[in-house]
Prior knowledge:
There is one protein chain. By secondary structure, the protein is α/β, with parallel strands linked by helices. The protein contains 6 helices and 7 strands. It has helices spanning 21-33, 68-79, 112-121, 140-144, 152-172, 175-182, and strands at residues 2-6, 39-41, 44-51, 54-61, 86-92, 100-103, 127-132. The protein has a 7-stranded mixed beta sheet, sandwiched between helices.
Amino acid sequence: MKLIVGLGNPGKEYELTRHNSGFRVIDAFADSIGVDFNKKDFDGEYTKFKLDDEDIFLFKPMTYMNLSGTAVQKIVHFFKINIDDIVVIYDDLAIKPGEIRLRLNGSSGGQKGMQNIIDNLGSSNIKRIRIGIGEPKFDTIDYVLGKPDKDDAPKIEKAIDRAVSALKEYLNHDFQNAMSKYNGGDND
């Protein structure tokens, strides 16, 4: 059993913001395999599909970013999902737009949604896919809750596509393969 979590904020006003990169990846992944988020529970929206007789859950916490861990903890405990089988996808200011980084574990790097997940699950040994949104030139909150400009938007779109491909690599092979193939910039 695996759990893939995309982080973001619920509501139309946040849909295409930098901070919703995790939601956008998981939505694009769901679309690419033909599944819909058809269940609401655990303070989130989720769906489940089978891959080689294994249950794969896709989950979007609806708690707002900074409380993502409370929702993730609920679904993890209910379905008894092993921490080694969780992948979290979120935006990262420290990575250039257009790049993604896959990591097996580590700190949240200041990303409050990821930090809340680490706090609630009691471990930083959580796989993650970070979507580069770049450093703000002004207020961080306005930046992450804003929509990318015309230069960054296509780069972030490409990063979202690459993250979807990385997820497929992870599910069809393993996370190490996905890391070696997709870490960094344009290495398609």
